[in-house]
Specification:
about 600 residues; alpha+beta; 4 domains; 7-stranded antiparallel beta sheet; 4-stranded antiparallel beta sheet; disordered N terminus
Length: about 600
């Protein structure tokens, strides 16, 4: 957005230069030239940026979530820069003019009026472009699948952290055995450069992590686990502080599968027993829990009646007295055959006993288990802690596959991949077994290097992403051809603009392909072995926007130079390019500064 805004301001300034050339005598006495300049450049500013907005729209329609985010940002940036260039800047200059702050419209001329014969060099420039584009395409074809990152081929991305800064080239050379490997240095916050790297390859996560540990060994950072004294979970009401950290809304996990699903509770239970089991899993309040337990007890009594001997089943059972809607503390129902029944709230010798332990367990499924706070030297995700617990349960043989456990953090929201250095663990095991479990988790964590982030992309997802990228590029070209065809009333303008931008994209594609071979030599210039991924596709579309922007500016000036002449001559093209040369150079310079 900053680049585009500078581009518009530069064009306005250079259009004032053109006005100076045409109306030199008027400028000296008439500072209203700024108003005339705004009127002249509004059309070309809108034309040049509509093409960029079309590309952003295509990105949003066919792109992934990350690319859509880039498209929305580009849309907002272009709209705001158009608004500031066409309206805000004009208001500022008009106020300055009326206040007599702007008495002379002076502008520094980087390049004055030029009269280069660009068309004379057309054959040589065309030949050079052909060699560059074909050479770049040849190198790209030679690299094959190695030109694409895991976004388009599938594979694994692992982030590693070293104890001491490393040279990117040295890390890359050490990993040459991995297929299609790409190494990129990253920084987090004020971290020292050379400590953190992203390793992308087409191998599986397990293989990559194993090879990284074998190659770099103790040079990689290892995480550390500490914990407070495990505490048994009793049937006491939680304090407000405990409630805030209990992970409300976070589903418990089982050691076998992770999220506790409905099918895991619906085994071969009677409905009343199922209701009691389900009550232990629902985050219900006291009133709702009381009603659910009442329903469970009534249904359990019905099940007992249906299981009674046949001769008893034939006897008519007296109906139980109506249940009042006032408060009742007992979930007991009158047993079959009891003509009097027992009022709710009073104990009955024939009614099944109420079980306070079951009610307490319904309030907290971890009753009788253990709570402990885990502390990590390096922040980890919820998924990492979950994997540690599952692996430790499997290795130690503690508990069973149905053992419940849950991790929570006050700042963590379920479904997010945020990292935290403290996690509260609840598990359905006694404290003495939890101590053994924590020892196993500590050994597992500290026995291998710490990988802060690991992502795996499947082949089907990668193929879909690749098709989306192709569709985005082609669709953006087609929409630009159609728009320029309509805007300049000629198909040649649209085709010429698209040919120019395809040329620019192919040049950049060749540069990316060649980077694989020159990175070891030009590493000091931050040249890496670049690969095509989603950010690179977004960069391609940004280049398309700039290419079309520059082309439309020349087309607009060519339309002014041509006037009503149906022909386009070499002299007209030379004049249009010369008049916009300063603007092109200044725009490129401001973009390089940004």
């Amino acid at each position: 957005a900053i680049d585009k805004s500078l581009d518009k301001k530069t064009y306005q300034e250079l259009d004032w230069e053109g006005t100076f050339e045409d109306y030199l005598k008027i400028v000296a006495d008439n500072p209203k030239v700024a108003r005339n300049a705004f009127q002249r450049v509004t059309t070309v500013i809108v034309d040049a940026n509509i093409t960029t907005m079309l590309a952003a729209t295509i990105l949003w329609v066919v792109g992934s979530d990350q690319v859509r985010g880039f498209a929305v940002t580009l849309w907002i940036g272009v709209l705001m820069s158009i608004f500031t260039a066409v309206f805000v800047a004009r208001v500022i200059f008009e106020i300055a003019e009326r206040r007599r702050w702007l008495k002379k419209a002076k502008m520094l001329k980087v390049i004055g009026a030029t009269k280069f014969d660009f068309m004379r060099w057309f054959p040589h420039a065309a030949a050079a472009s052909l060699v560059i584009t074909l050479g770049g395409l040849a190198v790209a074809v030679a690299r094959g699948q190695g030109l694409f990152d895991i976004d388009f081929t599938g594979g694994t991305s692992v982030q590693v952290v070293f104890n001491e800064p490393q040279d990117t080239g040295a890390v890359r050379r050490a990993l040459q055995e991995l297929p299609d490997v790409a190494v990129a240095g990253v920084r987090v916050g004020e971290e020292e450069p050379g400590l953190r790297f992203n390793i992308n390859t087409s191998e599986t996560r397990e293989f990559v992590e194993e090879r990284l540990a074998a190659i770099f060994g103790d040079r990689l950072v290892r995480n550390r686990l500490r914990w407070e004294q495990p505490k048994a979970i009793g049937a006491t009401a939680p304090t407000p502080a405990e409630s805030s950290q209990s992970g409300a809304g976070v589903k418990p996990h089982r050691a076998s599968s992770g999220q506790l699903g409905l099918g895991e509770a619906e085994q071969t239970l009677g409905f009343g027993q199922f209701a009691r089991e389900r009550a232990a899993l629902l985050p219900l309040g006291p009133t709702a829990m009381r009603d659910l337990m009442l329903a469970a007890a009534l249904l359990a009594a019905t099940e007992q009646q249906s299981d009674a001997p046949a001769d008893q089943a034939k006897k008519p059972a007296d109906p139980a007295p109506p249940v009042e809607k006032t408060a009742t503390k007992s979930a007991d129902a009158a047993p079959p055959g009891d003509s009097k029944g027992a009022p709710l709230g009073e104990p009955s010798s024939k009614a099944p006993e109420s079980k306070p332990a079951e009610a307490a367990e319904a309030e907290d499924p971890f009753l009788g288990g253990t709570a402990v706070q885990l502390s990590f030297d390096l922040a980890v995700t919820h998924q990492t802690v979950e994997a540690l617990v599952k692996n430790a349960l499997s290795r130690t043989g503690l508990g069973s596959e149905s053992t419940l456990f849950q991790m929570a953090n006050p700042d963590w929201i379920e479904g997010q991949s945020t990292r935290h250095d403290r996690w509260d663990l609840k598990i359905k095991l006694p404290p003495e077994q939890v101590e053994k479990l924590l020892d196993a988790m500590k050994e597992d964590l500290e026995s291998k290097p710490f990988f802060p982030a690991t992502n795996t992309i499947g082949g089907a997802v990668a193929e879909s992403t690749r098709q989306q990228a192709y569709a985005a590029l082609v669709a953006s070209w087609v929409t630009m051809i159609v728009y320029l065809w309509i805007r300049f009333q000629g198909l040649a303008f649209g085709v010429a603009a698209v040919v120019a931008l395809i040329h620019d994209v192919l040049v950049i594609l060749g540069a990316i392909a060649i980077s694989y071979y020159v990175a070891p030599v030009l590493g000091w210039l931050k040249v890496e072995q670049f690969k095509i991924n989603l950010p690179i596709v977004a960069a391609f579309l940004t280049i398309i926007g700039y290419s079309v922007n520059d082309t439309i500016v020349i087309f607009d000036r060519l339309r002014e130079v041509r006037g009503k002449d149906p022909r386009i001559t070499r002299a007209m093209i030379n004049t249009a390019v010369n008049q916009t040369l300063s603007r092109t150079i200044l725009t490129a310079f401001t973009v390089l500064l940004v």
